[in-house]
């Protein structure tokens, strides 16, 4: 569990901008978590999003508490998660409760790999206001390397391999194994979950071009729609995965 008492969030202009940055880059958080669940050996120390919860109380007005949520699923629009904090002020939600959060309502995302922090936009706003000594104490309390507040890292080895911002390395390295898997389990190409999402839909949400190329080559239906009427291309456009939009468009024209 992340200790919410390590810092507090106030809705200043800088914080509101941090909220927007977290929302627009959430796709990188989800992509990493998507691959984490397919790893044999876990690579992440933790992965959470931050959400503002509200409750109207008589004589006290609207109470707001910012808390961390463990993510379970993401359909391109709504995040399903579990509250990972014990509320201090609110009584309308409790630790461990499952919740649905629209993407445009998250305040932050943060994951750690080898004790290095990725994301954490609101954390960096607060760190920028601290003295060097306080910043060191803050980072020591988290046990993380947050780096410079004006240089937020989104993906693993971003500086060493900037191409990781475009394509997750596992999407490239797993192409052959995925092809072999689909040869043995061709029904996976057409299988849908309860919301009507196919394998192709989920890879589009995660921005996995390599996997999408394999799926299309094996005959995945690019025109398949979810129960809500969304194609894989719709989801790629929604999340602005520019590197896969063209191949989905081309496949849809054939």
Describe this structure in words.
This protein has helices at residues 13-36, 121-128, 132-142, 169-173, 175-184, 199-206, 209-217, 232-238, 242-253, and strands spanning 44-57, 61-74, 78-83, 98-102, 106-113, 116-119. It folds into 2 domains: 4-160, no CATH class; 169-253, Serine Threonine Protein Phosphatase 5, Tetratricopeptide repeat (Alpha Horseshoe), CATH 1.25.40. It is α+β, with helices and mostly antiparallel strands and 254 residues long. Helices cover 37% and strands 20% of the residues. Mean pLDDT is 92; it is low at 1-7. Helix 5 runs parallel beside helix 7 (209-217). The chain starts with 12 loop residues before the first helix and ends with a helix. The chain is globular, with a radius of gyration of 20 Å.
Entry keywords:
254 residues, alpha+beta, six-stranded antiparallel sheet, disordered N terminus, Serine Threonine Protein Phosphatase 5, Tetratricopeptide repeat, 2 domains
């Amino acid at each position: 569990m992340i200790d919410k008492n390590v810092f507090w969030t106030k809705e200043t202009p800088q914080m509101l901008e941090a909220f927007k940055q977290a929302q627009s880059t959430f796709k990188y958080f989800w992509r990493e978590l998507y691959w984490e669940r397919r790893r044999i050996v876990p690579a992440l120390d933790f992965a959470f999003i931050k959400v503002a919860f509200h409750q109207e109380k008589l004589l006290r007005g609207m109470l707001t508490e910012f808390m961390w949520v463990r993510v379970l699923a993401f359909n391109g629009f709504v995040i399903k998660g579990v509250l990972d904090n014990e509320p201090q002020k609110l009584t309308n939600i409790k630790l461990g409760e499952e919740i649905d959060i629209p993407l445009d309502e998250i305040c932050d995302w943060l994951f750690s790999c080898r004790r290095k922090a990725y994301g954490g936009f609101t954390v960096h706003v607060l760190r920028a206001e601290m003295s060097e000594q306080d910043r060191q104490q803050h980072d020591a309390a988290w046990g993380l390397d947050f780096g410079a507040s004006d240089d937020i890292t989104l993906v693993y080895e971003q500086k060493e391999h900037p191409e990781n911002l475009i394509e997750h390395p596992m999407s490239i390295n797993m192409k052959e194994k995925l092809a072999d898997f689909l040869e043995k389990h061709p029904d996976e190409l057409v299988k849908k979950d309860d919301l009507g999402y196919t394998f192709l839909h989920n890879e589009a949400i995660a921005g996995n071009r390599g996997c999408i190329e394999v799926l299309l080559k094996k005959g995945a239906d690019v025109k398949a729609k979810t129960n809500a009427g969304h194609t894989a291309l719709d989801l790629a456009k929604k999340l602005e995965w520019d590197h896969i939009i063209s191949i989905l468009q081309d496949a849809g024209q054939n």
